[in-house]
Design goal:
Blueprint (H helix, E strand, L loop, with lengths): L1 H41 L6 H45 L3 H21 L6 H20 L2 E4 L11 E7 L9 E6 L1 E4 L2 E4 L1 E6 L1
């Protein structure tokens, strides 16, 4: 009886081994399937080349727009800075124009006094004193940037001269200044007072 039982036990062992192998195979297949499903679930979708190119084009356009805005803002800032510097320089340069303009009638009075004293020997000493005073006054004004305009014999310039009358003459060309009624003055490049003149016609 023992000889007959051995084949049964051997067959039983083989069946168990086959069953174990089958279960192991199924487990391995399940693990592989789960792994593939996990990879599929966790994978990211990559955009296409066209989408990437479109996004790049959009970003380049935005970058160019921002750069243009920056350049415009920089230009405006430079303009504001230049205007501010010019205003400050002009304020400093012409700060005393009202005071200096108020002093011009004094020069006119000194010049008229010199004209009235000329030809009179008794007033010679007074004339010399007035002339020295006038010279000192004009030198002081010149140091402040004031230049006298005495355009007799020059061509009429409406930027610096004011014609009060016209006179026919053959001595000089037309539009030439025949006589200066009142001398003009300018502070640097700005006219404080135009010269009052008679113009040839």
């Amino acid at each position: 009886m023992g000889d007959r039982q051995e084949p049964i036990a051997e067959n039983s062992t083989q069946a168990e081994q086959e069953n174990n192998k089958w279960q192991s195979f199924q487990q391995e297949q399940q693990v592989i399937q789960d792994s593939e499903e996990g990879k599929s679930a966790g994978s990211l979708e990559h955009p296409s080349y066209e989408e990437l190119e479109e996004k790049l084009t959009t970003m380049e356009q935005k970058a160019q727009e921002n750069w243009d805005k920056f350049l415009r803002a920089q230009a405006e800032l430079d303009n504001v800075r230049r205007r501010a510097e010019k205003d400050v320089n002009n304020a400093y340069k012409y700060a005393q124009d009202k005071l200096l303009n108020a002093l011009l009638p004094i020069v006119d009075s000194l010049e008229r006094a010199i004209e009235s004293c000329q030809g009179n020997e008794a007033d010679k000493v007074i004339l010399e004193g007035i002339e020295l005073t006038l010279k000192l006054f004009l030198d002081t004004l010149e140091k402040q940037g004031i230049k006298q305009l005495n355009p007799k014999g020059e061509m009429f310039d409406p930027n610096f001269h004011e014609a009060i009358s016209m006179q026919e003459t053959q001595e000089v060309d037309s539009s030439c200044v025949l006589n200066v009624i009142q001398k003009g003055y300018k502070l640097h490049d700005r006219v404080l007072r135009p010269a009052l003149v008679v113009v040839a016609k």
